[in-house]
Amino acid sequence: MNILHISAECFPIAKVGGLADVVGALPKYQKEIGTTSNVVMPFYNNKFTKKNSFDKIHENFIALGHNYYNFKVLKLKDNDLGYDIFFIDIPDLTHKEYVYSNDDTNRFLAFQIATLDWILSIDNKPDILHVHDHHTGLIPFMVSQCHKYIALKDTPTILTIHNAQYQGWFSHNKVNLIPPFDFTKVGLLDWDGSINPLAAAIKCAWKVTTVSPSYMDELKNNANGLEALLRHESKKCIGILNGIDTDVWNTNTDNRLIENYTIENAQKGKLTNKKWLCDKYNLDIDKPLFAFIGRLVGEKGADLFPEIFTRALANNNISIFLLGSGHKETEEKLNKIPKNNFNTFIGYDEKLAHIIYAAADFLLMPSRVEPCGLNQMYSLRYGTVPVVNAIGGLKDTIVDIKDQNGFGICHKGVTVSNVTNAILKATDFYKDKQRFNNNIQNIMQIDHSWSNSAKEYVNLYNSLKN
């Protein structure tokens, strides 16, 4: 079976969020269980593309309304990703340093059209088109409705929703950018008066998946306006929990760490990484270290961080380190907190992120929305206890220490007091050294690899071909 993943992001080529990690890992694990699984994405003018070489395998032009654009399909040379990856290079549209900006409608629509035009030209066509989020959400509509793609009409399409808050809305004034179709079907594109690529994909895809079972349930009541649609289409919806790439996230081989470690010497290895981080950022190594890694946005509860951190630090019995960016006002407030066992790195640094997962004692994830979450899985793998709001994928992956076989800290609801109390609870847990150290070894053995999830996706693919 030949699967083609179509996505705006893929690690390590272009990463903004968890979408890249999923698309960068899932095909590799699907290949390991005997499925041909590859990726196509836009060609960005970024660090990865500048330092790598590509073969041109196709060239043509597309029409976007009344405008015509040349495009090339490139294949990565010297590829050690574990699957083939293809790039749609439309110099006038996709050849940008950024992934997302205010010209996304035209760029991603052109990317989708060029992808389908290329698929029409190849002999070994995909058996399944697996699209990810709204950036590729018009493909299920175009495959089923656009006249030029009638040869692909019987090709099953699967949509995976990584984050339903972003839907790619644009005006009906741009409907002419989509290749010609029977206009009586224009309602498939519409939701609440706009063309909505995510809604169109939910309507037209053969199956719809989300990145955790709980998130699928939550979307039926909170999906930024798509609740009724998801309830209506519930029979074709399924939640499949994401996994992590355990080759990349491996404490024994991770070359970004200050010192590698295994389950057997986890306390020593984590302490070495913690010492480096504390020395560099003026934190107290003897205090429990809480960390946050991610975007400073409301979805992550980051707007409350200045007050939460101020309260939590008041007793001077913990340290906090934050790696992230995304909201200037929050950044400014964080920078005003005294650097007394508190510090920040405003921005993102992949090496530093890996060190933090190894160094921290606790990872803070007070998310208001968390479709799956990968950070809590990385932290478990690195022996760091997640402190989470029990929602979405966090609810599916973290069990509170008060429960039998519990190993994390959970709270319900994102308020200053709830998160602060969870930090106090974690601090008390840290004081019970034997229990805490045993917990480190236990959580490092939890299997959140892609192996099981990849099998679930392959079973889903098979159900569409029978």
Automatic annotation (TrEMBL):
Source species, domain of life: Bacteria
Enzyme Commission code(s) on record: 2.4.1.21
The entry's keywords: Glycogen biosynthesis, Glycosyltransferase, Transferase
InterPro entries: Glyco_trans_1 (IPR001296), GS/SS (IPR011835), Starch_synth_cat_dom (IPR013534)
Gene Ontology MF term list: glycosyltransferase activity
Catalytic activity annotation: [(1->4)-alpha-D-glucosyl](n) + ADP-alpha-D-glucose = [(1->4)-alpha-D-glucosyl](n+1) + ADP + H(+)
Residues that, per the record, bind ADP-alpha-D-glucose: K15
Domain Glycosyl transferase family: start-end pairs: 280-441
Domain Starch synthase catalytic intervals: 2-232
Stored Gene3D superfamilies: Glycogen Phosphorylase B (3.40.50.2000)
Pathway: Glycan biosynthesis; glycogen biosynthesis
Keyword Glycosyltransferase listed: yes
HAMAP family: Glycogen_synth (MF_00484)
Family named by the database record: Belongs to the glycosyltransferase 1 family. Bacterial/plant glycogen synthase subfamily.
Record's function text: Synthesizes alpha-1,4-glucan chains using ADP-glucose.
Protein name per the record: Glycogen synthase
Gene name linked to the record: glgA
